Structure prediction request, 193 residues.
Amino acid sequence: MNIDPRPLYTRASEQIAALVATVRPEQLAGPTPCAEFDVRTLLSHIAGGTRRIAVVGAGGDGMAVRPFLDGVEDDRWSAAYDEVRTEVRKSWADDARLDALVTVPWGEAPGRIALSGYVMEAVTHTWDLSESLGRPLALDPELAEFALGIARRVLPDERRDDEELPFDSAVPAPEGADAYGQLAAYLGRRPLS
Prediction:
């Protein structure tokens, strides 16, 4: 894989930002397809994971970064996410970062592979958040198709019994599912309704 995932990551982060901007404080305690997360915890993970990939892009130790952002006031999630996604754009601006070896939770990889993995994570959590909020915005199908391709490459079913993986075994996609629904099902997620 020799693509530059930065434009896709930028589009994914713009999509997340638009979705986060729709969150109302009364929705923060609501459920998500990630059984262990409510909306507030999912937002914390989205922002914290984004900060982690910013540190990786800057050449730092992303594994030292907790993948949750704590202390965000209920009405500041949009601003908090905008801050960390700006960090990502700056830290990955140098083309050399795409070929540099970096360490991410799933191992050591060239930057372009690591960032592609984070596109998959961002797009997956976009679906999670969208489901939690009642699907307030249309989502970019090309991003989901890219993320699904990455997921199929790096997460074959036989590896799903590893308790360290944050994804369950694939479940059947609902009939007529779009690329987001297929991605969610491949990662073991089910719609809330």
About this structure: Residues 156 and 169 are 9 Å apart (CA to CA). The two ends are 36 Å apart (CA to CA). Strands lie at 101-104, 107-110.
